[in-house]
Write the structure tokens for this entry.
Amino acid sequence: MLAYLTRRAVHSVIALTGLVIAVFFLARLTGDPTNLYLPPEASREAREEFSRKHGFDRPATEQFARFVGDVLDGNLGFSLKKQRPAVEVVLEAYPTTLKLAAVTLLIAISLAIAVGALAAYRPGRVFDRVGSTGSLIGASAPDFWVAITAILLFAESLRWLPTSGTGGFPYWVLPVTVLALRPFGLLVQVVRGAMMDALASAYVKTARAKGVAERSVIFVHALRNALLAAVTVAGDIAVGMINGAVIVETVFGWPGVGKLMIDAVEQRDFAVIQASIMITAAAIFLMNILIDLLYVALDPRIRHQ
Amino acid sequence: MRGFKLHQPFVTAASVAALTTIAAMATLAPSTAYAQRTITIVLPEEPDSLDNCNSARSAVGRVIRQNVNETLIELDPNDSTLKPRLATAWKQVDATTWRFTLRRGIKYSDGTPLTPEAIASSFDKALSPKLDCNARTKMFSGFPIKVQKVDDTTIDIITPRPDPILPVRMTTLTVGYPKEPIRVMNNSVGTGPYMIERYTANSEIVLKRNPHYWGKPPQLDGARYVWRKESAVAAAMVRVGEAHIATNITHEDAKDAKTDFAYPNSETNYLRIESLVPPFNDKRVRLALNYAVNRTALHGSIIPKQAQIATQMVIPRIAGHNHALNKQRYEYSPERAKKLLAEARAAGVKTDTPIELICRINQWENTTETCEAIMAMYTAVGFNMKLKMLEVSLWNQHNAHPNKGPHTPGADANLKNRGPVLLGHMHDNNVGDPIFSMFPKYGCKAQTSSHCIPDLDKKIEQAAQTPNGPKRTKLWEETMAVVHNEALDVFLFHMVGFARVSPKINFVPTAATNSEVLLEQVTFK
């Protein structure tokens, strides 16, 4: 296991290095932050002074060498916008994103497994038709439209829920529901398909022929195998959520890392962009390890390999 | 058909989901309950810091300007007159010295007295070249001032060169805490009616009363600031009672006459002509650009009907706005535009030169639609024009150091060889004096000016050196007339902002609402 983890870590560090180099140079191609941080009336001298102070007047390769040196010293840079260490700014935003992602995923996955499994168990029946159609709508509805419509309906017209912001249970309902819709829709489709394959397989027929209880047939034999496909898709969705749920965070005023990254790109806050990418990559590395471990738990054949 | 019951894994998964949800929700605790006389204000963006040295930046100023950190002199947003704040009187002692008499008995919110030394120290920090604070970069760049104590309640401010409008400039510079370290902070301490109770980054800012405030105690106990980027959400928050003021909503969301206010926001949008670049150096072409735009068609459709058609750079409340020009505006006349272009062509002007109309995405509401409509109007009269919508940083490359021709010192290398550009622009003069518009836009030496008419340049210099009063006003009016008569730019509209205000409070947004929200003027009904 240690050898496996080491191999994965080395691969991740190589990928991360490539990513950081690409982000570093691409970000600088988007324009000089001086024009954004100084008012239009600022004099040429003020612009040159700003550029010199922050090193933007140096060649990009020289800026990169300095950045690498700083990273090796454990310094991920200083936010131009917030005037604080970039790592501090990113770590402030991360807990919000992680909590939102964790709750959303757990709810989406749990519901999707239940709906997908039940739909596959009785294909063509009302539950299957309603579940499949509902999941298709969920998977294809645009987040932004759903979020604004939900606020106007449930917060402004019906006044059942708060419009936005963070707080107790009521504040979670709309963001989590909006964010869970797409993963739920996708996972229902995946679980349903995988369950139908599993229920039609020889090992399920054998289990039934042997007189195994129906709930064991479904949950132990069929669903466990069907979950491998769901875990793969859920892993991809989880990675997307760790990158931040930009639209939901922006509309509902949740101060997560997705919104932070978008703001940082718009404001050419290079240090925050770089710190976000590096910390997110580390989180995704951990997530991938977890997914691999989950595969092993679900399918003993992978363990033996 | 076989049946089944819920199996243990389902129950376990559901329990884990429920427990995780509850745990996560518990860690994002609901906001504290607030006193009855506390209001919530929804801003369009989070302030980037809470340091008074950045209070000239609207995102910061809306929270702390005059509420936490006060200026020596205050600008009345309704008529642009100057009012005492921390200073009770001011006068020019000599060409480069202004004397300010300080209000007696003023203390910071921690009880420290406000002294001449404190003001000097605070200004030194705000204007330090070591920081990129807006206080310096916006109004004092290349204009270092020095504070000298005369006695305990009198200071002299020495300017590097004569400045007849230093008092106007001082309306932008807030007084901070003495002897602060030279770095941008988030806990500005001031002398205003409120003090920062807490700033939770990414979440909220809460102000509470300053027990040492020198003035009449305000009615509100405090205020909470949150920020929502989406106008529809901000407006909904006021509608359902979660907030009391949403300072910047779109005119599409401002549909309720009882709660939604339009306010002049001191911004003027226009198309900047590069009058030194062919074919724009021909007055007939510039006039054609002005006659070709159907402002009336835009007004009330994609531009809010509360906006005002503009004929000059500064808004009507500023002394120096030439009211006579409003009756001489360039009315839409495509025939006249075509005729002027034909005359120019006959005189050898290359009127078919490709022109770029460059606009900045989201510079004002419906910018893209406005620029597309104008582009169609120009094409209809015969201009060879192409529209480019650029994001702010790329747009700025065209704004700074515009191309005045190959011999212009300082013209950016990448702009030197490009063709003529008509730049969609919006100018904000919330300071109240035309110098902050006319020099940067029309001065021969200004970094963002695309014009150079020596007589106009002299007139601007003359007006700038004239003390406040009727003579100065008249000189500015004359400069506005020159710009209009020479058709140097295509003025579009004096714009408006929209705010939603809860029916539970008294608050009328003003031209200053973009840059400050004075809590002491808010009362509960």
Remarks:
- Chain A touches chain B through 67 residues (CB under 8 Å).
